[in-house]
Amino acid sequence: MSLWKNIRRHRLAYLLILPTAVVMATIVFYPLIRGVLISFTNMNQYNMGSRFVPASYRFVGLNNYLRVLASREFWDIFIQTIIWTVTNVFFHFTIGLGLALLLNRRLKGRAVYRTLLLVPWAVPTYISAFSWRWLFNSKYGFFNLALKALGADPIPWLSHEIWAMVAVIATNVWLGFPFMMVVLLGGLQSIPKEMYEASEVDGCGPLRQFRSITLPLLKPVALTATLLGIIWTFNMFNVIYLVTEGGPHHQTDILATFAFIEAFHQWRFGIATTYAVIILSILLSFSFFYIRALRGSEEIY
Amino acid sequence: MRRERHTWLVHLVLVICCLAAVFPIIWVLSTSFKPEPEVFSDRLNLLPDHSTLENYRHVLTMKDGVFFIWLRNSTIIALITTVISLFLSSTAAYAFSRYRFLGRRGGLYIFLIAQMFPGAILIVPLYNLMRQFGLLNSFPGLILAYATVALPFCVWMLKGFFDTIPKGLEEAALVDGLSPLGTFYRVVLPLSLPGLAVTAFFSFITAWNEFMFAFTFMSREKLYTLPVGLRQFVFQFQTDWHLMAAAAVLITIPVVIFFLQAQRYLVAGLTAGGVKG
Amino acid sequence: MKQIILLAFALALLLTSCGGKEEKAEGPTVLKFWHTMNQEETITLDGLVETFMAEHPEITIDAQVVPFSDAQNKFKTVAQAGDAPDVFRAEIAWTPEFAELGFLTPLDTLVSPEDQRDYLPGALRYNQYKGRLWGVPQVTDCLALLYNKRLLQKAGVEPPATMNDLVLTAKKLTNPGQGRYGFFWRGDSYWLTPFIWAFGGGLIDEADGEIHINDPGSVQALEFYIALRDEYGVVPPEVDFANDYENMLVGFKTGKYAMIFNGPWATADILAGEQFADPGNLGVTRIPQGPAGYGSPVGGHNYVISSSCRNVPAAYQFINYLNRAEHQAELARRNNLLPTRKSAYELDGVADNAIIQGYRHQLEVANNRPVIPEGGLIFVDFTPNLQAALNGKMTAQEALDATAKAWEQLLER
Lengths: 301, 277, 413
Known about the structure:
Chain B is mainly alpha-helical.
């Protein structure tokens, strides 16, 4: 079908998308494309130009990329990013799904449970992050006081290479599970009750119901939530920065924290955007394969 | 019955999880009632030695009650963001879900890409862009930025929710004489209330707790949102945690209220009516 | 269409403001003033702003608090578009950077020679960059040795005068079984700098850009630092890089740590602790000398006028008013801050304030950090390497070599 005919046929669709597309184009894509272009320059605060001096940055081709990819820390940080992302999303999903299943039932006090479980998401992040930082205090924090009470040795949580990663992951799992829980709950609630009732009449037990009704009907929502969760967690420099500042000595840094430090501490936009484009490429390739592998789940009925 | 016996177990698990969800914040709550010298201590004192309401009083009355101005700003911005986000994302998600148009797959990918790039690093070009459009120090500018940030997630999520609604319903409605938009409005939307509730809550909380854009685009104190205003308690070498904790509790209350309203829609029962067949 | 309207508006504005242009502008001048002071200091400041406006009814000051941690970026973001506030309180490390970026108005011609002489040279240094004066110092600070007088008396020791004395004195005050330690150190590179200078090392030489962080003196300093824990056992064995500032203060205020390094910003907090309910118990003295002499980093804040300012004379009038000796003394009295004017130290409330005088004593032998645009960033690269050394992942030499390499990259601009 020719291009014009196709557009005319679906003109309602295009119309529906138009306002969103316009908004996104200006606020998201203009900076994004600029960002990609900047990654091929040596732009920093001294040459980016301002009201008072003209711009003087130069095109440097792939220099930034070579510099970043060849740096000793890059691969360590990359592995740390993968560990960070996979562990977080795994726990977010399992805890979120478990709680969503429990809260899907008719239960007394359901609203109270749902609201309390929402608290990690509702409190401003930097305050929660600080609470966790204090909880992991090696001298006065709750966890070490508890360990002492049980007769165990205190753990130098935020100063130890491995434990620091455990600590930031724990913090982020705590921060992120309510979101997964709410989304999956929404998905579960979208499944019509009649399906369960009909299957009960047919003699299905709860496990069979879960496998044949719940899982398949939850799939689109669950897969989307997981994909988005992966993308967000990969970029979540905020929590790490607030709890450990990437320390001790870069052991909890992820690619996104490097991009952030380059951008905000040094205003080295050339390098910061390079990190950002690398992040974008990794996530884009991943999403491509992810969606392809799970394409079968788009149509349910 | 089997169901009943398991109920107490379910309650137990939920109570434990609630405790885990809430206990890190207990420190914040307890700190909000402590006078400053007690904030950091070598003992785990959850109950303050000298509890006081002074912190709350200070936050609520400082600078002639500017807290309420910030509260008003945050509320307006978050609510309008939610409405706009709902409108834009539901229409776009419907199109993506129902129509196989040219550029559909690409369009979905583009929404995804928007999330992948850590956009915060480009805050300076964004500032200049906003300045060019005269959107600095204005609510519309911030609302626009928040709606944009929330859109990709909302579109993808709602598309997922719409995908679970059988097309048969709309076909039936079309046969009955409803226009495509009419079926969207009267058939699909009511069935997607859970999805819409999730989207609404997500948009609200994105706008409510956001700091970076609000801080960069607003330069006048009377235009600050709550997160920006309350950042004032962070200083060079220390933070006034006793005040910050009280502020955090105050900021969280409206969110909890909003959620209590939104979660009422997270109910099944708005069912697929007449798909017999 | 929009452009035409804007143009017409601008033209109209221009025409109306053209009449009678002298030094004083028509109508009230509004000066935007952003500062990063904490709640307590702001109260004092607001009082000064009020009295200034009363004395100068033609000038209105629009004062705003900006959170410190984000102020540098905010200023640069608005300044590059020409929207910077007229007057800003810039940390000393930001001043050369803002000057280099062209965001400040130089004040050479505005600051009188008497004023220049009255400012403490260490504090004034941070306003001098590339031969011009870019601001005036508002408040200054340094790290000093704080000690619990009672604890030292009980152990029969005097505050240490040299680094060797530090070890001996601290040992007498250490009792691991009771959780008591004579000293406390942090995994933050700013707290290491006194040792660096005391042992003959250095940071960066502004004049020639030479990096001295991995000189033998600096390495010796770091090795001594590590030895305080590993060999002499006078600092707590457990480290907590994320929380050690708060832990240091809690321990000091509860009498667990007898001596620490800290600055005047912490005085109010310390005096609220149980051990220092009587302020007389807090001793403030010079950080002990090392083989090469004294070491302590000078910090502080400056008042600067941005290049977006349209009424520089009024802005400077305002700054000069805030910086009068008696007003600096007021901030000192009320908020325990160190004035930057020599004359302020003679005034009541400052001259008789033992704590402030103790810091003044340290200031006399304190060191300026390099006055370069990257001055604030050197610690961002330094601290992770220090942490690696303290965790035993690198030797002192390796850690400082890595820091030197990072600084080379930083300075290449």
